[in-house]
């Protein structure tokens, strides 16, 4: 049986205020074309279909169109809710959709009831484990503690118990939305820490032939049978070097796995540039980034005048600008008292103004500060004399 494993669509999300709706539509077009061209038997979507609990109408329409096209192809789709989704909202109409081959698994209580997909070798039991919030499901699952490892372990115990009662040779696939130990996160995933612990061991999925994971946005292999598809698009500059893709997984007669990565469309490359303002504007090495979405970090000791406008002339798609002045010879570990030792009140005030404004004070401003300090000293002396 051939599966297409994807996750973390985050429909409705933007990238630094730039709409990704067209890019998400292009991805879904690519997904449907892949299902048709690769003769996929079932699509697995491992959570975070939407970017937020109440998605915009445009995202809902995009989702609806994708499901209709998959249903028209007659290809079953198994989908779980992620930590960004509203499980209740995503699961509305699940019973009716199931009759069309779209199987929404959003209720934790049903995690041990699989979607059964037949092929020439028998049945494949596909279990959908929606995102499990420990505080909400611990009691119902009888978990020993309110952390992700405990509740996911309890859910998998239910899966293994159901599988044990099925005919010998039944192959099993699990969809889950979690952070598995050993996997690499990035900046664009919402933290799911519970009780100080968010990671679960890969061994929790022992007993099934393939675990299709969602939550982390980088495509990665935790184990031969435990994989993240990653998000189909980049949602933060921390994903600059990600290769966005889906897994095409062939599940053999005895449960053997053959997995192949299929690239997804890239709407625009990402570039994180760091350096002095003049270098970013003039270095020919940056010419290749003129068409990229750019995040620039300036390391100048003082803020240049209107840097964003100047950078936008060279990098028309610049989206983010930050300032991180080089420390130089300054001892950043020195205490506040050590850094002020030997400096006059006027020098400290001048440094403060320069830091806030981004350039040193000029001669006239220095005179104003000096007059202000002189006035304060005179007033203090009068007060003490009285």
From TrEMBL:
Protein name: Nuclease SbcCD subunit D
Function of the molecule: SbcCD cleaves DNA hairpin structures. These structures can inhibit DNA replication and are intermediates in certain DNA recombination reactions. The complex acts as a 3'->5' double strand exonuclease that can open hairpins. It also has a 5' single-strand endonuclease activity.
Keyword Hydrolase among record annotations: yes
Listed Pfam families: Metallophos, SbcD_C
CDD domains per record: MPP_Mre11_N
Source taxon at top rank: Bacteria
Subunit structure: Heterodimer of SbcC and SbcD.
Stretches assigned to the Calcineurin-like phosphoesterase domain: 1-217
InterPro entries noted in UniProt: Calcineurin-like_PHP (IPR004843), DNA_Repair-Maintenance_Comp (IPR050535), Metallo-depent_PP-like (IPR029052), Mre11_N (IPR041796), SbcD (IPR004593), SbcD_C (IPR026843)
Gene3D superfamilies: 3.60.21.10
Record keywords, A-Z: DNA recombination, DNA replication, Endonuclease, Exonuclease, Hydrolase, Nuclease
Gene Ontology molecular function: exonuclease activity
Organism classification: Bacteria, Bacillati, Actinomycetota, Actinomycetes, Kitasatosporales
SUPFAM superfamilies: Metallo-dependent phosphatases
